[in-house]
Structures are given as structure tokens and as C-alpha cells.
Design brief:
This protein has strands at residues 7-14, 23-29, 35-43, 48-55, 75-81, 86-91. With 97 residues, the protein is an all-beta fold. The chain has a single domain, classed as Sandwich (Immunoglobulin-like). The chain has a four-stranded antiparallel sheet, with no helix packed on it. Strands 1-4 form a two-stranded antiparallel sheet. The two termini are 18 Å apart.
Length: 97
């Protein structure tokens, strides 16, 4: 986040121990569970991949210090496919924040 209230989110993930030549879909969901933005057909390079998201002022809710406002938590969901089937769905609720 900078003084213009624009932000960049880099999402990187590692498939372990799986290496595949499939694709992934990466979604960012707001606190209500609605998809804010996504990237599909992210190519997997071995077992690592990622995406970058750019947000302009007002695209996402601001995070305020305790006592000054809300602290909205957004979830990142990663859906992994090989050439035939769905392999895995993981969201940020499954890991520590």
C-alpha cells in the first residue's frame, strides 16, 4: 500500500511433493466470501507458480490499527488442476494468518 492507496498482492505457492504440468486458478475473496478478483489458467512450472494482483483505491477495504477501524481479512483460494482433473483446493483459512 502506498500514499495513493494502491496496492500489489503477490501470491506464490508450492505444490509439495507434487510436480505437475497443469494449471491453477487463484481467487481473492473479501470477508463476505465474494470473489474480488481472480486469475485462471495460471501455468504450473514444476511445483511452483503464482500470480500478481494490482488494486486501485477503493478496490479492497483498508486495514486499520486496533481502535481506529476494521481489520478485514481476505482469503486467497488456489485451485489446482492437472491436464485431466481437479487436484487440490486450498484457501488461506487452512493456514495461519
Amino acid at each position: 500500500m502506498d500514499e495513493t492507496l494502491e496496492a500489489t498482492l503477490n501470491v506464490r505457492f508450492v505444490l509439495f511433493p507434487l510436480e505437475t504440468s497443469g494449471t491453477a486458478e487463484i481467487l481473492l475473496k473479501n470477508p463476505a466470501g465474494y470473489t474480488v478478483t481472480s486469475q485462471s489458467s495460471v501455468k504450473l512450472g514444476g511445483n511452483i507458480a503464482g500470480a500478481e494482483f494490482y488494486f486501485k483505491k477503493g478496490d479492497v477495504d483498508l486495514w486499520y490499527p486496533v481502535g481506529y477501524g476494521e481489520q478485514p481479512l481476505y482469503d486467497v483460494e488456489v485451485i489446482v488442476f492437472d491436464d485431466v482433473r481437479l487436484l487440490q483446493v486450498t484457501d488461506s483459512d487452512e493456514s495461519s494468518h
